[in-house]
Amino acid sequence: MLSISEAQLMAWVSPVLWPFLRVLAVFTSAPVLSSRAFPLRAKIALAFFIALAAQASMPERPIIDLNGPLALGTAVQQVVIGLAIGFAVRLVFAAFELAGQVVGFQMGLGFAAFFDPASSAQSSAMGRFYANLAALLFLASNGHLLVIMAVVNSFVAFPVDQSILTVLSSMHLQTLGSELFSSAFWIALPVIAVLMFANLALGIVSRVAPQMNIYAIGFPVTLAVGLIGVASTLPLLEQPFSSLMTFTLEQFSRR
Fold it and tell me: Which residue from 72, 16, 77, 92 is spatially nearest to 48, judged by alpha carbons?
């Protein structure tokens, strides 16, 4: 009769369970992957498949008994690391959305806001446009594969048996916040510069020809110039997106 001891069962389950929890947490928080259009059962099945397929490339992990005192802390650690990776990727999308909101405000489209069911908040038209553009760049540049690679590499930087406080202090998530605002500024800077010159030209026209109703022509001109500037800079957005993704995911691959 075949008999399986508890130690043998833990040796089979433990190497797969902790990567599964970490990958599933990423699927819960990362943009695109956490979309409501992605069925929950498909997320669970895909997370299990990734955890199983990545066993050969992962470092040696300790066997942790599910009935032991370390099981709960290890599970919390995997969820926190997975959520942090997904949150960091979401910051990249937030940088693009912030850049779109700044551009839309300068174009005079700050009032064009609507309710976004994905984020359950008000979002401007240009902000949603840049966010959707970031999602397209994410899929076109195989960003989902980079996220999965970052999860696998995170087991080297953040082992399973590491303290949760050590993990949080090693992530340097505070540096990503400053990178968010600086990157959003540089993404929006070309269009803002073009709009600044357009507003300067309108100011000169209003001084030269005071009889001209500058308010009647100002909005169409700034809107047209802004749209031309956005269309001109769209092919250049792939490089800052790739740089942001690389910088963000490197935070979880350093030792």
Answer: 16
Three-class HEC string of the chain: CCCCCHHHHHHHHHHHHHHHHHHHHHHHHCCCCCCCCCCHHHHHHHHHHHHHHCCCCCCCCCCCCCCCCCHHHHHHHHHHHHHHHHHHHHHHHHHHHHHHHHHHHHHCCCCCEEEECCCCEEEEHHHHHHHHHHHHHHHHCCHHHHHHHHHHHHHHHCCCCCCHHHHHHHHCHHHHHHHHHHHHHHHHHHHHHHHHHHHHHHHHHHHHCCCCCHHHHHHHHHHHHHHHHHHHHHHHCHHHHHHHHHHHHHCCCCC
Task: Say how many CA atoms lie within 13 Å of 147 toward its Cβ.
Answer: 31
Verdict on whether the full-model pTM lies above 0.85:
no
* pLDDT mean over 54-61: 77
User: What's the alpha-carbon Rg for the chain, to the nearest Å?
Assistant: 24
Rounded to whole angstroms, how far apart are CA atoms 134 and 240? 11
Distance CA 114, CA 155 (A): 41
CB 85 within 8 A of CB 26: yes
- Read off the pLDDT of residues 143-198 as tens digits, 9 standing for 90 and up: 888 888 888 888 887 877 766 666 666 666 667 777 777 888 888 888 888 888 88
Give burial (CB, 10 Å; 0-12/13-18/19+) of 215. exposed
- In the chain, what is the greatest distance between 2 CA atoms, to the nearest angstrom? 100
